[in-house]
Amino acid sequence: MNNDPLIFELATAQGKPSSFRKDKDHTCPFCDVKNLSGIYEQEGEMIWLHNRFPTLRDTLQTVLIESSDHHGDISNYNKEYNRNLMKFALHCFKKLIATGQYKSVLWYKNFGPLSGGSLIHPHMQIVGLEHEDGYKYIHENNFTGIPVFENKLIEVNIATHPVQGYQEINLNLKSMNQEHGINLWADWIQKSVQYTLNEMYKGRCNSYNLFFYPYGNDNQSLCCKVIPRFYAPPYFVGYKLSQCNDKITLKREAKNLAKYSYIKNNFYPGVSCYNIKILIKLIIVGDFDNAKK
User: Fold this and answer.
1) Using CA of residue 72, residue 73, residue 77, residue 82, what is the dihedral sign?
2) CA 43/CA 63 separation, integer angstroms
3) How is 140-203 classified by DSSP, letter by letter?
4) Does residue 5 form part of some domain?
5) Which residue among 81, 101, 129 closes a domain?
6) Could you report the per-residue pLDDT of 46-100, keeping only the tens digit for each?
7) CB 106: neighbour CB atoms within 10 A?
8) 3-state class of 247 per DSSP?
9) Domains held by the chain: number
């Protein structure tokens, strides 16, 4: 497999503002809505537009502004707003794919100083690659793991084959065409992000990425992967080798995410109160096969 890197146009990045670098302009372009240009679609506060600083050659780079709240995030939106955001973003993602102009289309989100992003204002990015398969290093076992929750619409697990490591949360939407499934999926994404920032690593994580991967028959399923971000490990930087925590740790994380999502937040979609008590008990004792049933 050839390594064909994306070409970064350094000159284009020279005037790019940054919330994290002292030598850059800290003015937020996303707060200045009246002067935004290149808008494709808008739904309330959510705006999909052309990226003013397209730094990658042979691509179409677009930005999806999530909210007018400069310090907003998936972790603090109300449930209904977050559901609408995920539906709008999914619509934009599918619309760019449907043009047929790109070999692959990528959808991701940066949050925090270690995520690789440049602006605090909440946004996602949807990027069309003209010549590159952005998924060539991704395998379907990257979406599998220790089960946390599953019904006919979605599946949640702690990855046993992470893309980078060490603990990644997979949120698998089984069909991109069922609204109820998208709502449940959005709810789980929100709770997983909250868990990542507040509970995982005892609250020491201040950055994360969301990556979205179509898979399955005709690419009608979609994995949202939540990756906590710290400094990248040398095995991944130098050799593209991911690392994964041991099974005991992963099972503990699955149990903790299940407990956090229901017991602390009174949230566990698609399961009756009676069945959830049984499910939580199975996860706590480590009976993941019966919990998955």
Assistant:
1) positive
2) 14
3) GGGG-EEEEEE-SSEEEEEESS-SS-S--EEEEES-TT-HHHHHHHHHHHHHHHHHHHHTGGGG
4) no
5) 129
6) 999 999 999 999 999 999 999 999 999 999 999 999 999 999 999 999 999 999 9
7) 20
8) helix
9) 2
Q: Which two tokens stand for residue 202?
A: 């005892």
For the chain, the first-to-last Cα distance in angstroms comes to 39
Residues 114 and 79 in one domain: yes
| 157 and 15 in a common domain | no
Q: Is 63 found in the same domain as 146? A: no
Residue 150: burial class (beta carbons within 10 Å; 0-12, 13-18, 19+): middle
pLDDT tens-digit readout, 193-238: 999 999 999 999 999 999 999 999 888 999 999 999 999 999 999 9
Q: Tell me if residue 69 falls in helix, strand or coil.
A: coil
Q: Do the Cβ atoms of 113 and 207 come closer than 8 Å?
A: yes
Tokens standing for 181?
A: 């499934």
Structure tokens at 292: 């998955």
Q: Among residues 150, 194, 168, 141, which one has the least CA distance to residue 250?
A: 168
Query: Based on C-alpha coordinates, what's the Rg of the chain?
Result: 19
Alpha-carbon dihedral sign for residues 45, 51, 52, 53: positive
Give me 176's structure tokens: 């991109």
Residues whose CB is less than 8 angstroms from the CB of residue 166 and which lie 6 or more positions away in sequence, other chains included:
243, 244, 245
